[in-house]
Structure formats: C-alpha cells, structure tokens
Amino acid sequence: MTTPSMDAADIAASLRAAMVRELREMDAVTSEPVAAALATVPRHLFALGEPLEAAYAANSALVVKRDASGLALSSLSAAHIQAVMLEQAEIEPGMRVLEIGSGGYNAALIQELVGAAGMVVSVDIDPDIVERACTCLKAAGYDRVEVVLTDAENGVPEHAPYDRIIVTAGAWDIPPAWVDQLSKVGRIVVPLRVRGRTRTIAFDRSDDVLVSRSYCLSAFVPMQGSGSFSEHIVQLAEGVVLQVDEEPQRFDVEALRQALDSPRLERWSGAAFDLPDELELFLLTNAPQVAMLHASEELVAQGRFAPSVTRGVPALISGGSFAYRTKRPNEETGGFESGVFAHGPEAEAVAAEYVELLRRWASDYRRRGAARIQYIPKTARTSLPSRGLISKRHGAVIVSWP
C-alpha cells in the first residue's frame, strides 16, 4: 500500500513487495531464494521511462526496442515468467550461469542467487541492448555481471563450463555450443519452439542428451542472428492459414481450399476439455500430419470456424480433408466437452481419428507435465524413434508420453 507521503524509493519498495506476494499467490514463486532475489533487485531501474506501477506489474512485459515496422526486438519479460524460469533453473550459490539474451534485470536476479562466489555472464547480439544492460546493472549496483556483445549461437566459451544456461529469447533450436558449454550435470532452461508453440523447458544433461525436467507454455521475442528462424505460412484463403515451424510439409493446398467450402462435419468425443496447452502438445506430437490452423475473428463471427482457431489450433490433415478441435458446455464432463469440426471428402475418417486422440489424452494424460521431452544433438550416439520426432537444424526433439 502506498500513501501520498511516501517518496519514490518507498513506493518502489512497496510495489516490489506486492509483486512478490502476487507471484507467490500465483505459484510462480515457490522458493525462498527466488522470492528474496525478486524482493531485492530494483526492477524499476531496468524499466527506464516506465511508471513504477508498470515496472512492478507481475504479468506485463515491457518492450525495450522495436524495429522500423514496430515489431518488438527486445523486451523486459514479465516478472511472472522470469520467476517461473528461475524456479525451473534451481540456481544455487557459487554456480556459473550463462544468460542468453541480455536486459540486465534477469542477470541481476541471477547474481543475487549465485552470490559472491558465483559468476554471471549475459550475452546479446544487439549493441544497444548490451549498452543499456550495462548502464542499468551499474545503476542498480550489479557491476559484477559480465555483459558480452556476440551472437548467442556461439555461447561464451571462455567462461565455460556453465552450471546453468538460461535463455531469455525464443529459440527454434539448441545450438551445439550451448550443449558443449554446459557442465556434465548442468541444466538449460530454454523457450523452445515446437510445432508452432513455444514452451519454456528445463533440460537436464544426461551424457550427450538433454532430458526435460519441467515445461510450461510461454511467449518470447524470437532469437536474432544465426539462430533465427522464419516459420512457414501456407495461405488457404483470405484470413485462413496453416502455420508450420519445421521443414515445409507437402499439403494439397488446392484440395484444402476446396474443403473450406464443403459442409462442416461435427463430432463429439464425450471426453473432458481441460488443460488446453497440455492437450495441444499431445495433439501436435501424436498426429501423423498436423499444422496449426489460424483463422480471423471475422470468419469466426460469420460462423465459418470455431473460436479455437483465432489463436491457432492443431489441425489434423489427410489429403484434401482436415479436422480441428472445438468444445461445448457439458456438465457431465466437468464443464466442457472436446469435439471436432472436419471438412473435405475424408471428413468422417479424419474426424474419427482426431476424436480418438482427444479420448486417449483425456483418459491417459490429462494432467500437468505428462510429456517427456528430449533433445538429441546430431552428434549424440543415440538411436531416434519414429514417433514423436521433430527434426531441428542441429538435432531433434523427441516428445514421448510414458
């Protein structure tokens, strides 16, 4: 609570304490070390030009730099996601930590966690961001953080190995340098793009392979430099696209365009609709040919598509037919029931296949953290399964459902 007689420092301290309380209530903060770091570092000193209330808003990211078209190039991530990532990392005093993507604030939090015996290296490709991070860190009293200007694809080998590597930009792949510079028992926390969605995954090293410890849905400004990647967009009609992150799949685009104008088939699963981000991961990694289907709000308002498509929904594709997930109220399934809308000459078959996936997830995997995610570098001497495999530039992601 703030009062008119409080000065700016007191107001900032009060807002910072309130932010930590809110993050605890949201379960974003679950440990005392992370809570203490968030309560100590003056976040407003890294949010230059922003009101104190904005600096300490738990769920608001603040854009630091935009390109000529207005696209965000760098941002101060929401305190919520920073807290979650730090909890995933489980940083201990004395550790050596490499931060990929510099802004200053997160590096200061890490410095609090590693203490005087630890080391924090923060890297960014943008000279403006590096200069800004250095200025803010110095102003806040964290001049022991080493900020390096370089392409993060190469890491910072001169200070390796690192006990933790924390990536604060959206990555499409995990470069060999990050794995090489990770200690034998180290951990990488990385927002990794998989099939059209980004999930922050905490990977522990197991010999030459990375194995997930936890994961959660997230959103980050994408990586720049050698690690950048452009998604593939297939336009089916005005306001309707398929989004594919990996190598372009071969779609019968003309047949799919014709399917859009065909009658809609509706099928219901009798299974609960719940935890949509977990369900989405299951669908994206268990369907034989799948892409993210996006359609405009205007088309939804016209009744041509279900509301699920406005933010993207996994679409199962078979030749010139496709099916996608929807929901409807149903108290018997706990509130909502999952279902399928399908179009095209094989609508019945593709809908049946999708419904079976919905039922299987609800029966066997309806919980947080059901998936096991591995990253297999190309250099690893490990055989690759045929199921759940997502090819990347430097390796492959394997998503399995034990």
Question: What's the topology here?
Answer:
Blueprint: H1 8-25, H2 32-40, H3 52-55, E1 62-66, E2 72-76, H4 79-89, E3 96-100, H5 105-114, E4 119-124, H6 127-140, E5 146-149, E6 162-167, H7 176-180, E7 182-194, E8 197-206, E9 209-218, E10 232-237, E11 240-244, H8 253-260, E12 265-272, H9 276-284, E13 290-295, H10 297-301, E14 313-318, E15 321-330, E16 335-343, H11 347-364, E17 372-377, E18 389-391, E19 395-400
Parallel strand pairs: 3-4, 3-6, 4-5, 6-7
Antiparallel strand pairs: 1-2, 7-8, 8-9, 9-17, 10-11, 11-13, 12-16, 13-14, 14-15, 15-16, 17-19, 18-19
Pfam family, one: PCMT
InterPro entries: Methyltran_FxLD, PCMT, SAM-dependent_MTases_sf
EC number: 2.1.1.77
Shape: globular
Please give the alpha-carbon distance between the first and last residues.
Answer: 48 Å
- Low-confidence segments, given as residue ranges, are none
Residue share in β-strands: 25-35%
Query: What radius of gyration results from the CA coordinates?
Result: 23 Å
Helix fraction, binned, reads: 25-40%
Q: Treating each run of at least 4 consecutive H or I residues as one helix, how many helices? A: 11
GO molecular function: methyltransferase activity
EC number: 2.1.1.77
Keywords: Cytoplasm, Methyltransferase, S-adenosyl-L-methionine, Transferase
Organism: Microbispora hainanensis
